Amino acid sequence: MAYIEPAPIKDKENPLESMMSRFDAAAKLVGISDEMYDILKVPARQVIVGLPVTMDNGAIKVFEGYRVIHSNILGPAKGGIRLDPAVHLDEVRALAAWMTWKCAVVDIPYGGAKGGIACNPREMSAGEIERLIRQYTVAMLDVIGPDRDIPAPDMGTGPREMAWIVDEYSKAKGMTVNGVVTGKPLVLGGSLGRTEATGRGVTVAALAAMDKLRMNPYRATAAVQGFGNVGSFAAELLHERGVTVVAVSDISGGYYNKNGIDITAAVNYRNTNKGTLEGFTGAEKITNEELLSLAVDVLVPAAKEDVITDDNAGSIQAKMIVEGANGPTSASADEIINSKGILVVPDILANAGGVTVSYFEWVQNRIGYKWTLDRINRRADRAMKDAFDRVFETSQKFKVPMRLAAYMVAIDKVASTYKYRGGY
Length: 424
Known about the structure:
- The chain has a 7-stranded mixed β-sheet with strand order 9-8-7-6-10-11-12. A 5-stranded mixed β-sheet has the order 1-2-4-3-5.
- The longest helix is centred in the last third of the chain and has 26 residues, at 373-398.
- It is globular and about 55 Å long.
- By secondary structure, it is an alpha/beta fold.
- Helix content is 43%, strand content 16%.
């Protein structure tokens, strides 16, 4: 299964407003100046392009494409490209900013970016998608690059699309430039370990949080909402570490077994059942809403945005929430969750394992040498654990929730770097 960056953001709560509400609260606690606030609030670059594509029937259709670079203060911008009919500029702007904070939290030398094309890839042939991706690459030749802005897979894109970008960009530059994207096929310079990287990072963050709460993994239970790339790997790895995963879910609904689900059997079933758990017999069928309110130690929302809102936050019984998806908890639910004393490992920390291994892929491309899977996993685990410790320490020092602490760590790093560089 190919890696994609987790969780599409839909406009239930405007994603830009949701991100900004948390940014505003953290910025006040960090105490940045009004000038620095304005610098960090506004994207460094926003590009909108029209992409004429010849369709299979011979007609020319024009698609709208976006690329937003939120910041390049820490280094080249980094972020995925998504194909979705509902993608819009505010969504891309929010996701680009989230990438800035995510990279800063895990201390890798990237800024944040994001791209999108308003289209429905499920209604397009492979040839139409290829022509669209190549047109997008040509339109962005002065934007992307291994030292400027490095795209990656996201919703609707994968290694295949990244290979097309490498080819089109390399032809324009007159030489092979593997480092222009990450998430490539292994034969094109992709990295070992990237497919499972986000789920692995979620597991590392969950175990670190358990340690802080003095929770024994071998006596702990977990529910994982979402059984795609992120959720299934998180469930497998939590199970390997001794955690009893009592519930999982996908688009077909939830599946609960109080004695623990056989995760290997569930993964094998999904892989041979058109990618869905529909009909899985190793557990009792429940709804996704029922899964969210189970009395478990660890809840991992790893499916989509805004699954925890002010409507259902009061019913959550988990001791901790580890966010595998981007934006699974709406801003309006934060206060309710915090008032219940639930420890939340926020998305910009918990799901940063993917961008961390993307960085490792880029490094390997730059030095022309491949690392072993063991080395990649060791370094990624260390990066995630160190990031967790920094955020937890900030949370304790300022007596704020982990989400606010993560934003504080990120904003302070970016703002301090900007000042040291003499930005104003």
